[in-house]
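Morning - zinc ion inputs below, output right after.
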Amino acid sequence: MPQPYVLLSAAVSLDGYLDDTGPERLLLSGPDDFDRVDEVRAASDAILVGAGTLRTDNPRLLVNSPERRAARLAAGLPEYPLKVTVTASGDLDPTARFWHTGGEKVVYTTDEGAERLRALALPADVVSVGPDLRWRSVLDHLGNVRGVRRLMVEGGGQVHTQLLREGLADELQLAVAPLFVGQPDAPRMFGTGAYPGGPTSRLRLLETRPVGDVVLIRYAPTVPGTGGHPSAADRHWLDLACDLAAQCPPSRTAFSVGAVIVAADGTELARAHSREGDDPVVHAEEAALAKLDPADPRLATATVYSSLEPCARRSSRPSSPCARLILDAGVRRVVTAWREPDTFVVGAAGNALLAAEGAEVVVLPEYEPRATAPNSHLLAP
Ligand SMILES: [Zn+2]
């Protein structure tokens, strides 16, 4: 299984703090929002907090509603989501509530941390991801080994900041509470430093909703990954390309393909699908590129998302194949779901051409079923 969908969840004050500096945890949300959080937990396969949050807040991280727990059991799920924590040093308190409530637990740590943790004999699976703690390794293990599809992250600020900076968060859920903390040393949701796409990059608004006297805001990152590393936003844009593929006029002689071109700051530059408008043979990537000024400086750092591998040869007309058009436009990063089969043109696969001329090609095979669905009538059973 691929990496899980990562949802960062926190309540923040109007001045952007997660807590005050007092010994007791400051409760930012009201009862309605605590119930909403309980619902989000119940819908998650796993809940993660950093080791710092375990030390300062000593949370239980349970699904509190008996009805929600019963519904999980009825759906064949464990009563409680898997509880996950992450520590490089292995400095954890074995008496914390985290270990002695709820269901299964797993600790991700380093080789050094694992040695220290073995002595504690925690009631948890201790997994070392190597000499350094890398978030991609943690998420790979959660997806591939633990089968986690949906991961809720409940802090602290350092964990939220790292996941967002590395482009690994699919969604932010902020409950904005109507109060001010006003203490410069209080913990913030997000730290200072560079974020993907820089300060001009805008997230995508998914939802706003009043919950009692707090407001829930849901945002999704938009910035493409860099090089061969896919970001969470890469998955969103490729998913959109697959949606576009489903909008193609039907054909018995050509594939249905969707394409989106996205700038390095997450701005969508163009989108298109095969056989768009009045052109019965136009390809998705060709149609999307045609909507842009060839001199647009954003193309050099843009990513092209295409549900199908861009073509390196085409039978429908003598114009350049899409892989050539992408290279000529100056684009150097392509994300695709599905490698072109030899159905219509033998040897049409463009990924090799793109890579040979210096473009990074990222294939996300978990989207292949979505990319092939509008083409099932063309594929051998
Ligand atoms: Zn093409």
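Note: The longest strand covers residues 5-13.

O.
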